[in-house]
Design a protein that fits this description.
Bound molecules: 3-methylbut-3-enyl trihydrogen diphosphate, magnesium ion
Largest sheet: 6 strands, parallel
Number of domains: 1
Strand order of the largest sheet: 3-4-2-1-5-6
CATH topology: Undecaprenyl pyrophosphate synthetase
CATH superfamily: Decaprenyl diphosphate synthase-like
Number of helices: 8
Helix content: 40-55%
Low-confidence stretches: none
Order of helices and strands: HEHHEHEHEHHEEH
């Protein structure tokens, strides 16, 4: 929510309900979708939807801090998104660098440590430098971890993990029967942080689009029709409240 007293009040009320509702999820992951449709609805070019989406990222990070999340993962650009028109990809990469320049100081001040994961060798040298800058700038803080999936695909991640393990087997360092869930998880980009408890997708799409397939095995899923640029902290709090009302069973009774 970016303006209006009543919207601010309702976000505050929702936050109070989240705080009263038991512990927040440890890790929330978000498929940020609908920038293009938002732009179309406003008679704007697609890249302007992506720019507006950046403001929603800021909002969501602030909301996540207020809610007390330990980990927030945002799907910013998929391996498959490289197939979009060259101008759109270029605009997204420019926005990434703009995001780093405009947000890195606030992120550090707010104690947000940023990690970026994905096939980063596909990024341009300047985009990679921006990523390194952001990670380096926030390395020392740890109130919350923000994980950005950029040039990320879950199947590609799993293939890379299998290659790593296969190479260890080939070198005689790992026995095939020593490969267990922990080993596989340990070879993924996400090895250092817990699996998401809650997965949010905006824009009403009921699909996963190659995001964290291994890691979301037992995540609760919340789909909202809100288009990503309109997503605000109140929407994050609603998703958390939905999560807090779920009964997680993990296959038990
Ligand atoms: C999400 O918005 C941003 C990225 C995938 C980079 P989209 O660009 O997918 O927006 P829609 O789905 O076309 O509305
Ligand atoms: C998923 O959205 C990728 C990101 C949000 C970065 P897409 O818009 O690319 O997914 P599809 O094409 O609708 O499955
Ligand atoms: Mg989309």
């Amino acid at each position: 929510m970016r303006a209006g007293t009543s919207a601010v009040e309702s976000a505050a009320q929702l936050l109070a309900a989240v705080r009263a509702g038991g512990g927040p999820p440890t890790h929330v992951a978000v498929i940020m979708d609908g920038n293009g449709r938002w732009a179309y609805e406003h008679g704007l070019a697609r890249w302007e939807g992506h720019r507006e989406g950046m403001a929603a990222v800021r909002e969501t990070v602030e909301g996540a801090l207020e809610a007390g999340l330990a980990h927030l993962t945002l799907y910013a650009f998929s391996s498959e998104n490289w197939s979009r028109p060259e101008e759109e990809v270029a605009a997204l990469m420019d926005l990434l660098q703009e995001f780093v320049d405009s947000e890195k100081e606030d992120l550090r001040r707010n104690g947000v440590r940023v990690r970026v994961f994905g096939e980063l060798d596909r990024l341009s040298e300047s985009a990679r430098a921006a990523v390194r800058d952001l990670e380096g700038h926030t390395r020392e803080v740890g109130r919350m971890q923000l994980h950005l999936a950029i040039s990320y695909g879950s199947r590609q991640e799993i293939v890379a993990a299998l290659r790593t393990l296969a190479a260890e087997v080939a070198r005689g360092e790992l026995r095939p029967d020593a490969i267990d869930e922990e080993r596989v998880a340990g070879a993924l980009y996400t090895s250092e942080w817990p699996d998401p408890d809650l997965l949010i997708r905006t824009s009403g799409e009921m699909r996963i689009s190659n995001f964290l397939l291994w890691q979301i095995a037992y995540a609760e899923i919340h789909v909202t029709d809100v288009l990503w640029p309109d997503f605000g902290r109140a929407d994050l709090f609603r998703a958390i409240l939905d999560f807090q009302g779920r009964e997680r069973r993990f296959g038990g009774v």
